[in-house]
TrEMBL record:
Gene3D superfamilies found in the cross-reference section: alpha/beta hydrolase
PROSITE patterns: PROKAR_LIPOPROTEIN
Protein name, per record: Lecithin-cholesterol acyltransferase-like 1
One GO MF term attached to the UniProt entry: O-acyltransferase activity
Pfam families membership: LCAT (PF02450)
GO terms classed as biological process: lipid metabolic process
Database matches in InterPro entries: AB_hydrolase_fold, LACT/PDAT_acylTrfase
Keywords: Signal
Secretion signal span: 1-22
This protein's record includes keyword Signal: yes
Length: 430
């Protein structure tokens, strides 16, 4: 009888192990960065095109109800169409309503919320050049993750941001509500297992806000771990270049001045300006003949580059938001690239803001300065008991190659396996 009991015991143990290894995966929710998912648009009667070309031109094919893919479509790279694209992407700030809206006549929507579909490739017909999270998702699937069961995506309209308490931000707040619902659904459909949130870039700022805007009890119930890739916690100096001179989307064919107005109009771009909390007032980020600008001079900078409309929303809605990096009190792993030359000082000494500046580079991931990638390490130094934080630095990996590079993907997947193998009991003991 004893022998049988041992056999039963072993069988029971083995069965438990099997059950564990199948159900051990905490569901993952992917939150992309700016420009990291598709956006669709349609035009109504109220649409006022800036040129005749834009009146009749659409990326083809237009689907049901007149919806077409606004981001990303390769025609954006061809000059007359770049302008149409920029017009349709432009937001405006309504002073009376204190909120951001699409231009009149342009309706937009985010396809496939809940799924990874719109994050894999920005244009499914041009997989090779527009691949975004496809490689990462492949690797997660090899670990046993399944789309719609344990793996979910939270695309959003990345032109919009969030605002400090007391200011409406209808589009960004709606996204946070949807994301919250998705987290709860993913957890419930996985037997109550708390989720791992895996964000890239701007997505990390949204997730931090989501966490801090929900009670600690909610966070502990639903969030196992937050992994942020390349999060610009304190903004980027490159964003000042974007506001001053326009940024060519990294595509040499695009004239940055054609997209500058649109880029200035984006609420999330204001959010990504370098934070005065992080960049000391004695640090000149933009140098001109007349004066220099630190992160503390951004309102004056916006005036001087010819974008005074940005000053009020920046001061009232954005500044209090970026000055507040409250710890979410859920375990956080920041995975960042470094050792890539990243804009650090912009020289407009012998030129206007319309022209591209001379750039002095420093350390970072090519887009985000290292000091910003590591800002939470500094900020939450000394509260380790309350805020578990791990930082993984990957040399020579850029802001977006972190989603493709094999070493980076191995680090991300390794971190997820570690989290999945943690015994649940530890959580309540710690
Ligand atoms: C900072 O954010 C936290 C969480 O959202 C909030 O509770 C706190 O009141 C904010 N602090 C300030 C000074 O706005
Ligand atoms: C700027 O201020 C920081 C912090 O007070 C200080 O460590 C640094 O030496 C200053 N740099 C210059 C150039 O004054
Ligand atoms: C701006 O900064 C440069 C370089 O640090 C310095 O040489 C120059 O004197 C500064 N200009 C003004 C107006 O402060």
């Amino acid at each position: 009888m004893k022998g049988v009991a041992v056999v039963f015991g072993l069988t029971g143990l083995m069965m438990m192990m099997i059950v564990c290894s199948c159900s051990k995966l905490h569901p993952i929710i992917l939150v992309p960065g700016s420009g990291g998912n598709q956006l669709e648009a349609r035009l109504t009667e109220a649409y006022k095109p800036s040129s005749l070309v834009c009146n009749s031109w659409f990326p083809i094919p237009k689907g049901g109800g007149g919806w077409f893919r606004l981001w990303f479509d390769p025609s954006v790279l061809i000059a007359p169409f770049t302008k149409c694209f920029a017009d349709r992407m432009t937001l405006y700030y309504d002073l009376h309503k204190d909120d951001y809206f699409n231009c009149p006549g342009v309706q937009t929507r985010v396809p496939h919320f809940g799924s990874t579909r719109s994050l894999l490739y920005l244009d499914p017909k041009l997989k090779h050049i527009t691949s975004y999270m496809a490689d990462l998702v492949d690797s997660l699937e090899q670990e046993g993750y399944k789309e719609g069961e344990t793996l979910f995506g939270a695309p959003y309209d990345f032109r919009y941001g969030l605002a400090a308490a007391g200011h409406p931000s209808s589009t960004g707040s709606k996204f946070l509500e949807d994301l919250k619902g998705l987290i709860e659904m993913a957890s419930k459909s996985n037997g109550g297992s708390p989720v791992i949130i895996l964000s890239h870039s701007l997505g990390g700022l949204f997730v931090l806000q989501l966490l801090n805007r929900n009670p600690l009890s909610w966070r502990h119930k639903y969030i196992k771990h937050f992994i942020s890739l390349s999060a610009p916690w304190g903004g980027t100096i490159q964003e000042m270049l974007t506001f001053a001179s326009g940024y060519s989307l990294g595509v040499p064919l695009v004239d940055p001045r054609l997209v500058r107005e649109e880029q200035r109009s984006s609420e999330s771009n204001l959010w990504l300006l370098p934070s005065p909390k992080l960049f000391h007032p004695n640090r000149s980020l933009v140098i001109t003949e007349k004066r220099n600008y630190s992160a503390h001079d951004i309102p004056q900078f916006l005036e001087d580059i010819g974008f005074p409309q940005g000053v009020h929303p920046y001061r009232t809605r954005i500044l209090p938001l970026v000055n507040n990096l409250t710890a979410p009190e859920v375990p956080l792993t920041c995975i960042v690239g470094s050792g890539i030359k990243t804009p650090e000082t912009l020289f407009y000494v012998d030129r206007e803001f319309d022209e591209q500046p001379e750039v002095l580079f420093g350390d970072g991931d090519g887009t985000v300065n290292l000091i910003s990638l590591l800002a939470v390490e500094l900020e939450w130094n000394g509260i380790a008991a309350k805020q578990p934080l791990k930082v993984i630095r990957i040399p020579r990996v850029s802001h977006t190659s972190i989603l493709k590079d094999s070493v980076a993907i191995a680090e991300i997947v390794g971190e997820i396996s570690t989290i999945n193998s943690q015994v649940e009991v530890l959580r309540s003991v710690v």
